[in-house]
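In the previous chapter we treated chains in isolation. Here, by contrast, the input contains two separate entities that must be folded as one system, with a combined length of 515 residues.
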Amino acid sequence: MVLNYKSVFDIIGPVMIGPSSSHTAGAVAIGHAARKIFHAPATTLTVRYYESFAETHRGHGTDYALVAGVLGLPPADPQVPNALTLAQQQGLAVKFIEMAGPSPIGHPNTAIVTLSNEQRTIEVAGCSIGGGTIEIRRITVDGFELKPSGPLPILLVWGAKDNDQRIQTKLAKMTKIMRQQSYNTAAKHLVEFDLERSLQQHEVDSLQQGAAELVYL
Amino acid sequence: MQIYATIAELVSAAETADLSLSELMIQQEVANSGNSRDEVWAGMERNLEAMAAAVKRGSTGEGAFSKTGLTGGEAIKLKNYRATHQSLSGDTMLAAVQNAIATNEVNAAMGIVCATPTAGASGTLPGVLFMLQERLNLTHEQMIRFLFTSGALGMIIANNAMIAGATGGCQAEVGSASGMAAAAAVEIAGGTPEQSAEALAMALSNLLGLVCDPIAGLVELPCVKRNAIGATNALISADMALAGLTNKIPADEVVGAMKKIGEDMPQTLRETGRGGLAATPTGIKMKMRIFGQDRDFE
C-alpha cells in the first residue's frame, strides 16, 4: 500500500471550483508546485498533457486550473476560471500541447509543466491521482534531474553540503524521512527529502536557517 | 504516522476501543496532522458549509446550468415534481436524488463544491447527508461525524485501490462515494462498525465495473445522474446492513476487486471521453458541437 492519502481532508475536500478534482483541483496543485520551485515571476509556461489529460483538458478546465496554480490562486478562488486572462495581464505567455502516446511518468493524468524567464527554466512532471491529490515524479532544475518517489510532501534544500546533517537531524524529529537524495555540481548543492507527513508552517520556517533556498511541496 | 490500512483493522479497532468510526478518524487526523482537535473539527465544518451551499444553489430559483448546455435545471424539475406528484420511489428517496443532482449541476457549472472524494462524485455524500438531516433530525455534530466516518473509509479505499475515473472508472468515484456514504449512514442511524463495513461492501459491490465515459470528456453526462444512483444505492445498502443483511464477500476484498477491475478496464472507458456513452452517435455529435473539432495530437 502506497500512502498517498494521509489526511481525512484529502478525501473530504478540497472545497474547489468544479468540474473535476483530478483535472481541475489537481491541476491547480501541479501548477502550484511548479510555482514554488520556480519562485520568481515566469514569462513563459508550457504544459504538455498526456493520456486522459490530453483527451479531456479542454472540457475539464485543466488549462485555466494549471495557470491558476502557477499564478498562486487556491483551488476555490472564484478567479480560477479567469486565470488565462490574468496570465495575459501579468505577462505570462502560455502554451498547451496534447501529446500522443503514454505518459513518461506512468500515469493517465499527467501534465509536464515548463516554466521559464530569461535566467532560468524548470520542468515539473506531475500526475493527478484523484480527489485533488497529486504526485510529483520528476523535477528538472538547475541542471539536476530529480526523481522523487511521487507522494507529497517533498522538501528541496539548496545550500552548503555541511548543512545537510543539521537539516536531516531536525527533520527526523518532525517526521519520518522516506527518501533522501543529494545532487551536486561545482556550483550548486541540492538535497531532496521525501517526507511521511505534512509539516506545519512553523516547522518549515525553522528549517530555513542555514539554507540558501528551501522549497516545501 | 499511523493510518488504518484495512477496513477490517478499522472496524476491529473501533470494537476494541468501543469508539465510533468517526471518533477513530478524528483521533488519527489529530495525531498525524499535528493540528488540534478543534482545528480538525473546524476544517470539517467548512467542508459541510460548502456542501450545504452547493445543494442550496442547485435547488434554488432556476437552478445551476453549465456553459455547454448539457446539464442544468434538473434538480429544480425534481423539486417541482415532488411538490405536485406522488412519486414512485418515495419522497425521502427523491430528496436524496435532488440533493445529489443539485450538487453535481453546480459542479458542472464550474461552481464551488467539496470533493467527496472527487468533484465528479461530489453529489453522492450530500445527497444522503442532507436528506438524513431532515428525516432523522440530525444535529450539527452528527453531520460532521458523518463526514469523518465517510473520510475514514474513503482513505482506506483510496490508499488500497483508487478514486480517480482515469485510473479506475466511475466505480472508483461514485462507487467509492456510495460505499463511504452507506457506511456513514449506518453509523448515524445507530448501527455497529461491522454493519458500516457491510453497508460499504454492498454499496460498492453494486457499482463494481461502472465505467467512466463522459460525453466530450466533460463531468456532466452521465456524471450528474450517476450521483443520484450513488446516493440512493448508499441508502438502500445502509438499510440492508441495518436489517442484518450481509455481503458475504468482506469489504476489503470488494475494494481489492474494484482495484483489479479498474486495472483491467480499457483506457477508452477511463475518463478519456472515447468509449461508452461518449462514443455513441449522439455523444460524438455533442462533442463536435461543443469543441467544433476532434483533438489534434502533437
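Chain B has 13 helices and one strand. The first strand of chain B starts at residue 112 and ends at 114. Compare these points with the single-chain example from earlier in the chapter.
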